[in-house]
Amino acid sequence: MSEAPVLIAGGGIAGLAMALTLHQIGVPFQVFEASREMRPLGVGINVQPNGVRELLALGFTEADLDTVGIPALEWALLGLNGREVHAEPRGRAAGYRWPQYALHRGQFHMLLYRRLLERAGAECVRLGARVTGYAQDGDGVVARVEAADGRVTEERGSVLLGADGIHSRIRAQMHPDQPPINWGGVLMWRGTVRAKPLRTASSFVGLGTHRTRMVIYPISPVDEDGMALVNWIAEVTVDNSGGWPEDAWFRPVEVEKFAHHFDGFRYDWLDVPAMLHAADCAYENPMIDRDPVPTWVDGRVALMGDAAHAMYPTGSNGASQAIIDARVIGAQMLAQGVTPAALAAYDAQLCEPVSNLVLRNRGAGPFGLLTLLDERCGGVFDDIETVLPEVERRAYMASYKSAAGFAIEALNASPPTLPPGATIA
Q1: First to last CA, the chain
Q2: In this structure, what CATH number is given to the domain that contains residue 30?
Q3: With a threshold of 0.85, does the pTM exceed it?
Q4: Which whole-number Å values give the CA distances from 268 to 82, 83, 85, 198, 272, in the listed order?
Q5: Staple 203 to which of 74, 110, 192, 346, CB 3.0 to 4.6 Å?
């Protein structure tokens, strides 16, 4: 194995999962993160059982995850009139060997960061350092790193892993003719509120149609007063013919800007406008992804996480896939060393199926059931069986889980991604 470290561009969930995996298997590495300090940014995310399995294999415990989230018990879709379209248990309640977790994204990120520093030391992450490009030869790769003060250095490594997000500089160099970021016309507003969870203590609820929809789920346990920290996402589809009209991709906004879209979302069990006005924060961003590219690898350079496969959050599997990317790269390095061959094997294993998943999520992912419902009855019905029979709903969801890599039987029967205790000598 080369003495030169693996260079990781980006200290988000993908980059930290990669660093933790490399530390576990005994591969030297260096993380470069553009932010000057790590802060708990973002609100709710879900990590599916296939992702949780990898976190436990990295040495995290369910008690660790309980400090930043809560196991999900149910996934449910409701029509525009508030009636149930489809509901199913999640995690262990569904028969998985591992739970699904609804997490506070920022707190989860900080948990990964703290654990990495505890294991590998503070020097393994260089803050205020952005990788802006690369060059490579037969012996290694050189990353161009720009510091927050403008100084530029060149850092040599064995390979470079681009975990630098949807605006990836590494992807832009690897695929200079890639189309711009894709925005399909969905505006999202995200936030959190102290409220009583819906249906169960931990249900993920999608409510409405593909044009106007709410997603609501708790990301903390219920307190003694019956309240929890509840994550919500408000979505509206608008005309996108002119492209994204703003300069910012993620910004705080006032609830009054968008709450009126949901004036009709009032039921005897939920008043959405009241919930929104009680929120402690609200952020606006477009629902965006990138067109798949034919490869994530250029010799000694590989993309991972959102840099490789930024996807709509409709399937709640972006974070899970980022973690799995890291684990598969680690497994291939165990098998083939820290080499271009290992990166090529990772690419061959994941690029095509995950690119297909990007397109499936662009087509509404599991929320496609609400699209079918809208086409058949406008989202309003008395008896769901007469509109969207159970056998059709179950087949639709089974197909999605299989494509996303968390079909129950297949995942439960699969061997560990990395052999326990394995290291590169």
Answers
A1: 8
A2: 3.50.50.60
A3: yes
A4: 9, 12, 17, 12, 11
A5: 74
H/E element, 55:
helix 49-57
d(C-alpha 52, C-alpha 47), whole Å: 6
Q: Which residue has the tokens 């297909």?
A: 356
Q: What is the DSSP letter of 111?
A: H
What counts of helices (H) and strands (E) characterise the chain? 12, 22
What values do phi and psi take at 151, rounded to 5?
-65, 145
CA-to-CA distance for 28 and 10, rounded, in angstroms?
16
d(CA 303, CA 403): 21
Tokens 């009855």, located at residue? 377
> Does 1 score more than 50 pLDDT?
no
Tell me the C-alpha to C-alpha distance, in Å, between residue 114 and each of 34, 35, 281: 18, 16, 25
Q: Residue 55: inside a domain, yes or no?
A: no
Domain hosting 343: range is 6-41+105-180+290-364
d(CA 15, CA 21): 10
Count Cβ atoms within 10 A of the Cβ of residue 2 and give its class: 0-12 exposed, 13-18 middle, 19 or more buried: middle
Domain count for the chain = 1
- Two tokens at 253? 């906004």
Structural domain contains residue 162: yes
Residues 262-287 have pLDDT tens digits of 999 999 999 999 999 999 999 999 99
- In 290-375, the DSSP E strands lie at 297-298, 301-303
